[in-house]
Design brief:
The strands form 2 sheets. The protein has an 8-stranded mixed β-sheet with strand order 5-4-3-6-1-7-10-9. It has a two-stranded antiparallel ribbon with strand order 2-8. With 167 residues, the chain is of the alpha/beta class. It has helices spanning 25-35, 44-49, 81-88, 102-108; strands spanning 2-9, 13-15, 39-43, 58-62, 75-78, 96-98, 114-122, 130-131, 140-148, 158-165. It has a single domain, classed as Dihydrofolate Reductase, subunit A (3-Layer(aba) Sandwich), CATH 3.40.430. The protein contains 4 helices and 10 strands, in the order ββαβαββαβαββββ. The chain binds NADP nicotinamide-adenine-dinucleotide phosphate. NADP nicotinamide-adenine-dinucleotide phosphate binds next to β1, β2, α2 and α4.
Length: 167
Amino acid sequence: MVSLIVAASENNVIGKDGKLPWRLKDDMQFFKKLTTSHVLIMGRKTFESLPKVLPNRVHIIVSRDKNYDVDDENCYVLNILDEAIDFARTFLGKEIFIIGGGTIYEQAIKKKVVKKIYLTRVKAILEGDTFFPEISPAEWKEVARYSYPQNENNQYPFDIIEYERID
Ligand SMILES: NC(=O)c1ccc[n+]([C@@H]2O[C@H](COP(=O)([O-])OP(=O)(O)OC[C@H]3O[C@@H](n4cnc5c(N)ncnc54)[C@H](OP(=O)(O)O)[C@@H]3O)[C@@H](O)[C@H]2O)c1
């Protein structure tokens, strides 16, 4: 199963200056629980925005730079997104999560192999430089929604919304 996981503000901002423009601890915990022991596909810039290689997850990094290399046994670099997805499928029994950033989401959301979106909708209108595309209601249906309040863990209130592709 190939899923896409993203957090976006109400105006679809996902990043600013190479970072996330919010601090949402409960969302980080959701991301960790959902993705641990599975396979992550990400763009080179998102990989470089991580504080470290995420424990217990295979990282597949997409870059057009044939010389780009990451010296870590859990990291693989591929030059073509479709080949990254095919390679991810070789890790049998693991789910595949596309974790961004903007350029990868833009391409992946159109791919029929991506069957599910986990969207954290941050309830704020924010400034940023990287965006998530609109989720077309003709192609995606909401199947679940969980609300989280603003509190000492979460800078803004947010909903985690699950969408499934309409075939
Ligand atoms: N809110 C969220 O859920 C979320 C999630 C992830 C990231 N982010 C944020 O998003 C921002 C980064 O996103 P971004 O759009 O700037 O960069 P990105 O998508 O993470 O990475 C872009 C890079 O990926 C490679 N790439 C993209 N498409 C490719 C393809 N078809 N084939 C081969 N390589 C390809 C290229 O690497 P090369 O230049 O090396 O060729 C490209 O420069 C940061 O601010 C980050 O914090 C937010």
